[in-house]
Amino acid sequence: MGCSTEEWELWTWREVARALKVSRSWIYAKAGSGELPSLRVGGLLRFDPAQVRRFAAPGLVGGRVSLQRPSGEVAESG
Prior knowledge:
By secondary structure, the protein is an alpha+beta fold. The chain has three helices and five strands. It is globular and about 35 Å long. The model has no long low-confidence stretch (mean pLDDT 80).
């Protein structure tokens, strides 16, 4: 009945950056604003891979992450 360690895997900002093809500053800005789900482990910022995938899925366009700004303008990373 125990949980495997895979179920508890957390990503660092580097792994999120690689998956989403974005910069460290972009990740910290989105995590800081609450747009990108994250958690603190000690003083370290960590990310649940499943939540990162859910965050990215609606905006994936040809391997790039598209984000719609409040103005309706679309900004692409990568």
